[in-house]
Automatic annotation (TrEMBL):
InterPro entries: Cbr1-like_FAD-bd_dom, FAD-bd_FR_type, Flavoprot_Pyr_Nucl_cyt_Rdtase, FNR_nucleotide-bd, Globin, Globin-like_sf, Globin/Proto, MRET. Residues 138-237 form the FAD-binding FR-type domain. It catalyses: 2 nitric oxide + NADH + 2 O2 = 2 nitrate + NAD(+) + H(+); 2 nitric oxide + NADPH + 2 O2 = 2 nitrate + NADP(+) + H(+). It is an enzyme of class 1 (oxidoreductase). Belongs to the globin family. In the C-terminal section; belongs to the flavoprotein pyridine nucleotide cytochrome reductase family. It holds the Pfam family FAD_binding_6. This is nitric oxide dioxygenase. Its EC number is 1.14.12.17. The keyword DNA damage does not apply. Its cofactor is FAD; heme b. GO terms for molecular function: 2 iron, 2 sulfur cluster binding; heme binding; nitric oxide dioxygenase NAD(P)H activity; oxygen binding; oxygen carrier activity. Keywords: 2Fe-2S, Heme, Iron, Iron-sulfur, Metal-binding, NAD, NADP, Oxygen transport, Transport.
């Protein structure tokens, strides 16, 4: 397989932008109509996801270790879309037809062989990983909504009870899908694992958001939703040793941070934790009752609220990280940051400029990603820039 040739041909195809996924999906659905039901009714976001996924596979095609980890995660995760081994050749045919279409006269027999071989390897790794995952976890869990509280105009806190135990670590995220919309997004459990197996989710409805709007405005106690295997290791305490912690949360970024606080409490010993919780306005602190209870229960926990936009000072915005940096020197601690992409990007930049090093910074943006942390874990784990954060 000629990797350079493969990459170069992909860059020519990718230059056609949105036309590529349009052609690909039309070809796939026309030749194999049974695959249509695996995709959301509204395909807009799906198009980006396909192109981004392919771009990452092609870019990393010569870095086998990283690529195999990514593909294994992808294969195991795709079980939630009810993808079966017999679907892979259909996708391969549509992919080759798409490449051939956009490359026109530049499509050669050698390229056809390169792409067929590359796709064969990719699908083999994904199929094997999916089969291996069968022994470990179901493709998805059915969970009942046992509580649904609207805490702000656009924020709901949901408590879910999966039919079978869904193991996860604080700081991870799980795939969530409402059966009515048939598409998956990630949400972070806001609790450490509980005896009764329930999970709490904090969901902010994105304007026009397919899944979040459904979860906030169109879900009630007794409804069933689907959950998929937990992903991500960026926000877990796995690499923080027994260090004291500085936790920075913005908006529903408070969810995984709350899970971390509960984990520290469950560990029962020794860490000091300083928590900064930010919101754009006072009205947007949707979980103060819980935060106050935690602060009152645990002497090792100190809480500071940061209001971004103060009506007294129009035009100024106070960032959570800037406030924390102004309050103290936390360089001996591990720092966890979760919030919007902008909040995370700003925080990581400010902390880095203040002398904090990548190894002590753990961050996750809740941004509009085609695929969640599993992808980043596999592909970015060894990337030199651990200080980015723009999602
Ligand atoms: C690892 C991870 C963990 C996450 N955890 C949480 C969580 O605990 N709570 C939570 O509320 N969200 C969380 N998110 C975000 C969540 O996965 C969805 O992206 C978000 O709810 C929007 O999905 P949607 O289907 O409603 O919007 P879509 O239908 O995908 O998009 C609708 C519109 O909203 C915009 N949009 C999409 N996503 C976002 C976003 N995140 N922020 C702003 N605008 C957006 C799109 O550009 C589009 O214009 C997490 C994301 C990741 C990657």
């Amino acid at each position: 397989m000629d990797v350079a040739r493969l990459k170069q041909s992909w860059s020519l195809v990718a230059a056609h932008g949105d036309q590529v996924p349009l052609y690909f999906y039309s070809t796939l659905f026309l030749s194999h109509p049974e695959t249509r039901q695996m995709f959301p009714t509204n395909m807009a976001g799906q198009r980006d996801r396909l192109v981004t996924a392919l771009a990452h596979i092609v870019t990393n095609v010569d870095q086998v270790d990283r690529l195999v980890g990514f593909l294994k995660d992808l294969g195991a995760d795709h079980r939630k879309f009810a993808v079966r081994p017999e679907h892979y050749p259909a996708v391969g045919e549509a992919l080759v037809a798409t490449l051939q279409h956009f490359l026109g006269e530049q499509w050669t027999e050698e390229l056809a062989q390169d792409w067929t071989a590359a796709y064969g390897l990719v699908s083999q790794v994904m199929i094997e990983a999916a089969q291996a995952a069968e022994a470990v976890a179901p493709p998805w869990w059915v969970a009942e909504v046992v509580a649904h509280e609207r805490r702000a105009f656009d924020v709901a806190v949901l408590t879910l009870r999966p039919q079978y135990l869904l193991p996860f670590a604080p700081g991870q995220s799980v795939g969530v899908s409402h059966p009515a919309v048939r598409t998956w997004r990630y949400y972070s459990p806001a609790n450490a694992p509980r005896q009764d197996g329930t999970l709490e989710l904090h969901v902010r409805a994105a304007p026009g958001g397919v899944v979040s709007s459904r979860l906030v405005y169109g879900t009630a106690v007794g409804d069933q939703i689907h959950l998929a295997s937990p992903v991500g290791d960026r926000l877990t305490l796995w690499s923080a040793g027994s260090s004291d912690l500085l936790l920075l949360a913005g908006g529903t970024g408070w969810a995984p941070v709350k899970a971390l606080v509960e984990q520290v409490a469950a560990e029962g010993a020794g860490r000091r934790v300083d928590l900064y919780v930010g919101a754009r306005s006072r009205l947007e602190f949707y979980d103060t009752e819980t935060i106050e209870k935690l602060a009152a229960s645990f002497p090792w926990l100190t809480v500071t609220y940061v209001v971004g936009a103060d009506p007294q000072r129009p035009g100024e915005f106070v960032h959570v990280a800037d406030r924390a940096l102004a309050d103290g020197d936390w360089r001996s601690r591990h720092v966890y940051v979760c919030g919007s992409d902008e909040m995370v990007t700003h925080s990581v930049r400010a902390l880095t400029q203040a002398g904090y090093h990548p190894g002590q910074l753990h961050h996750e943006g809740l941004g509009k990603h085609w695929y969640g942390p599993a992808w980043r874990t596999a592909l970015d784990a060894s990337a030199p820039d651990n200080s980015g954060g723009a999602r």
